[in-house]
Amino acid sequence: MSNKIPLIIFSLIFFSCQQKKIEPEKYKPEWSSLSKHNESPKWFEDAKFGIYFHWGVYTVPEFSSEWYPRNMHLKDHKVYDYHAENYGHPSKFGYHDFVPLFKAEEFDSDEWAKLFKKAGAKFAGPVAEHHDGFSMWASKVSPWNVMDKGPKRDIMMELKNSINKNGMKFITTFHHAKHLQRSKVLGKENQLSHYPFFKDMPTSSNDPELSLLYGNIDDKVWYEKIWLGKLKEVINNYKPDIIWFDYVLDAIPEKYRKQFASYYLNESTDKEVVIVRKQHDLPQSISIEDLEQSRKNEIGVKTWMTDATVSDGSWSYTKNLKVKSANKILHMLIDIVSKNGVLLLNVSPMANGKIPENQKKVLISIGDWLKKYGESIYETEAWYKYGEGPTVQPKGHFKNRDVFHKLEYSANDVRYTVKDYDIYAIFLGRIKGGNKILLKSFSKETIIDEIRIKDIEILGSENTVNWEYNPEGLYIELPDDNYDELASVLKIKTDG
């Protein structure tokens, strides 16, 4: 018995040491420590497509855009006139008076999650908080949240459960860096604030509760208790796989950005999480770059993201909101994926919780295509060349978003992806049978190492493809077939 006791003690000490060894290293709030995080895990690189939604109190008036809360206070703005005519002067009917009208009475998280899955999304989630200071989760940081006011239900938890149940990762997006009132005059500094300070408006109220909504708070208190406090609350209670930030993040003092990142990573040691930001508000070593409404015109060295909206106008629901065609969004997705990118697509639900039918139709059309040809998108990588064709793209930047909006691709535009040794040539439109085409990207002039092609097939077809590979490129005879009107895919099988 005495011989066994030291053995047991030794075993316990050994086990304790082993436990310490396998404990994940704690991230310190320093860029050098945080950069040890893998900013682009494989699951994210493979996902390619996610969905989020601008949905909140700002959808109640169904007018102009999600910037209604700011613009309703500006006397030279059309929203000011609309608000005064329909609700009264903003000093009498403030933005806070819309909150009881945001009821989400027809919201069904399961219905939404099933739609997003059917659309082909691999991750989905809400705008957790827009610039307006209203939280779409059960918050203890501020009374202005969906559990205490408006719907009086934990919208975020319902969504998380439904989205995870349908096999998708969970994203939460934060736009609240702009919520703080940084100036009491309309000028440059005020452009970093969502609510303008006016003495005769609720935005200047000293009422403790109204101040929390309108961001009329001491900045040091706001950074610590509000901006960071809300992030910690969502991380603790909803455990998002992705946290995405809108612009003005650079206006948050660096020490708080570091504290956020270290907190998120240290609280997520059981899984690989992703941080997304715009501009250069966080180091590239710890985050994914997002290009709003635009995209790269070359292959990204690192994985990157575009966020764009299904609509042709406002990101939030407004009356008679028009939507983009399915082929426009799908072509955007294909173009992004061919350059090592990921698409985050916004939808615009109504205040009552319904997603309009015209938006559903577009999502389902995209999903139907991905169900047939998704192998050319999911789990792929960029080839050595992203594509070819006549359509010229500008440099990827927000300032060029209008050019990207107007781009119209055709079947003459080709995008390439690769999986293992197979190369996918995706034509951005319906190709015509009986034609002979030349893929110049395969020419000996542009490829250093010769590709050993075994066979070529048309995805979704049993027709035989005749082809010839010579120094000029890859010649392909397209057989007569019923090619897909959105995009056609050739699978070029190689020996490596």
Strand order, sheet with most strands: 1-2-3-4-5-6-7-8
Q: What's the CATH H-level superfamily name of the largest domain? A: Glycosidases
Number of helices: 13
Average per-residue pLDDT, rounded, comes to 93
Query: Which parts are unreliable, with pLDDT below 50 for 5 consecutive residues or more?
Result: 1-21
Give the oligomer, counting copies of the same chain as homo and different chains as hetero: single chain
What's the Cα radius of gyration?
A: 26 Å
Please outline the helices and strands.
Layout: H1 4-22, H2 31-34, H3 42-47, E1 49-53, H4 68-71, H5 78-86, H6 109-118, E2 123-129, H7 155-165, E3 169-174, H8 208-214, H9 219-238, E4 242-245, H10 254-266, E5 274-278, E6 288-292, E7 304-309, H11 326-337, E8 341-347, H12 357-373, E9 381-388, H13 401-406, E10 414-419, E11 422-427, E12 436-439, E13 453-458, E14 466-470, E15 473-477, E16 488-494
Parallel strand pairs: 1-2, 1-8, 2-3, 3-4, 4-5, 5-6, 6-7, 7-8
Antiparallel strand pairs: 9-10, 10-11, 11-16, 12-15, 13-16, 14-15
Helix pairs in contact: 6-7, 6-12, 9-10, 11-12
Could you explain the architecture of this structure?
Helix content is 28%, strand content 19%. With 496 residues, the protein is of the alpha/beta class. It has two domains: 31-379, Glycosidases (TIM Barrel, Alpha-Beta Barrel); 382-494, Sandwich (Immunoglobulin-like). The strands form three sheets. The chain has an eight-stranded parallel β-barrel. A five-stranded antiparallel β-sheet has the order 9-10-11-16-13, with helices on one face. The N and C termini lie far apart (64 Å).
